[in-house]
Specification:
With 303 residues, the protein is an all-alpha fold. It is elongated and about 75 Å long.
Length: 303
Amino acid sequence: MSKLSKSEILTGKSPMQLSMIRLKRNPQAMAAFAIIIIFILLSVIGNFNILGLQDAANKFDLDNRYVKPFKTIQHPLGTDNFGRDVLARVVVGTKVSLFLGAVAGLFMIPIAILMGSLSGYYGRLADDIIMYVMSVIVAIPGLLIIMSLVQVLGRTFFIIALAFAITGWVGLARVIRGSFMQAREYEYVLAAKCLGASDARIIFKHILPNLTHFIIVRFILNYVGVIKSEVLLAFLGLSVIGVPTWGNMIDESKLELTAGNWQNMIAATLFMFLFLVSLNLFGDALRDALDPKLKNATYKVDD
């Protein structure tokens, strides 16, 4: 448990600055953050074809099929059934997996914030309508909604991300709704109303900042779920077309494992495992640093 010195608290640092101090003092969080940065850099390298990785990932070389890992410098992780470099494919696939989770989260969070805040703050008719919409979405299996949207609208990057967002916003919206229902009766909210503050100011300035930790946790959980679900979509033949992804690599490996060729499976699974574990660890640490209740419980002052 990290402690804050008197000088750190008394020098006029904001709550956000104090949270960042606690986060930086968490070695596990910093190690996870470093791994996340490495994956982001890998996605940039794959996106801009630095070092010719996209060319190596898509180049067919039937004379070098199923090269075993660590046998040659040219193919450190081996090659697949078409002679494509597995390391290049898994690095290029990092771009799709990371961007897919991020875009799905960016679609999901505004929807959840809008629906949850309107439902919880205003109640009555707005609450009834939004809760009905939530109930309908929850009643239908999420995978079925995603499959239907992808089949109808196409297997494009943004359609898949939108499909994940449509099925993923309900959980966060319910949390926000419950928090707003409690917060609208708090004294500081009633005082803001008496002072003439608008509803928008109360929602976005006074109540919503206290829910930052909930939003971060839900974003990370959704991010993790999207990456894992993309593997399932690839297995069903509904993932992004024409580019390597971790899901596509794992799907392709099902025909290779019986022949003892595990390059695709191990590479994609290892990259996915490292990224998801790091994301979860950093998300938990960030949540703890930002949560007002946890901050009040764990901030200690050194004499």
